[in-house]
Amino acid sequence: MKKKCIVLLSGGLDSTTVLKIAQENFDVIPVIFDYGQRHKFEISAAKKIAMQNGLKARLIEIDLKQFGNSALTANIDVPKNQEIGNEIPVTYVPVRNTIFLSYALALSEVEKVYDIFIGVNALDYSGYPDCRPEFIDSFEKMANLATKFTQDESKIKIHTPLIDLSKSEIISKGVELGVDYSTTHSCYDPDKDGKACKECDACVLRSRGFKNANITDPTIYQ
């Protein structure tokens, strides 16, 4: 019998690949966050992906738009065709991964689940500070200090199987595992029909990843 784990599922390319990786060794509880993002296409994608994999997702609602200061939650233009990685972009949502992991940690304590998977990546990303290995290590240490159910020999493990992979390597790994990337959604600024803009950081990294992996990009662009 497989152990249970929690996977943070955004509906994007990375988290969907992580879901497949986790399913190799765990019974997965997918967690989807409706955090006040300006568009809901990624939530619909995440729900569909969970269903395709025979899983029932937990939807958690958080209102991060009340804090604003991000192009993903406030009325701020999403940057297009900018040089990626020079500075932390305005698409960064303040402490989002800290909040997401905290909710996952609360669920893990209730469900007695000691393994949490998250699709952070320290190579092909937009420079977000909460995607770095140092952040994950610090959160894991905190989790094992701050929870009742880790005070014996059992400890929380935060799994980051994509942390050192390029986007093309992630895509190649996902294809090997049978990921259907046509159902995933990455764009920060889709049109009203959900078509990707092709110019935001997420679209550029996604498109470049498929190209470098020599795999056809199934994304529907504007």
The major sheet is characterized as: 5 strands, parallel
Helix content: 25-40%
Structural class: alpha/beta
Strand runs, count? 5
Q: Termini separation (Å)?
A: 45 Å
Given the C-alpha coordinates, what overall shape results?
Answer: globular
Q: Which percent range describes the beta-strand content?
A: 5-15%
What is the CATH class?
Answer: Alpha Beta
CATH superfamily: HUPs
- CATH architectural designation: 3-Layer(aba) Sandwich
Give the overall average pLDDT. 95
Q: Write down the Rg.
A: 17 Å
The low-confidence parts are none
SS field, number of helical segments: 6
Q: What is the succession of H and E elements?
A: EHEHEHEHEHH
What are the defining features of this structure?
single chain, 222 residues, alpha/beta, Rossmann fold, 5-stranded parallel β-sheet, 11% strand, globular
Plain-language structure description:
This protein has one domain (3-212): HUPs (Rossmann fold, 3-Layer(aba) Sandwich). Helix 1 (13-23) links the parallel strand 1 (3-8) and strand 2 (26-34). It is globular. The chain is an alpha/beta fold. The termini are far apart. The protein is built from six helices and five strands; from the N terminus they run E-H-E-H-E-H-E-H-E-H-H. The longest helix has 16 residues, at 96-111. The chain has helices at residues 13-23, 41-52, 96-111, 133-146, 167-177, 201-212; strands spanning 3-8, 26-34, 58-61, 115-117, 157-159. A five-stranded parallel β-sheet has the order 3-2-1-4-5, sandwiched between helices.
Describe how the helices and strands are arranged.
Blueprint: E1 3-8, H1 13-23, E2 26-34, H2 41-52, E3 58-61, H3 96-111, E4 115-117, H4 133-146, E5 157-159, H5 167-177, H6 201-212
Helix pairs in contact: 1-5, 5-6
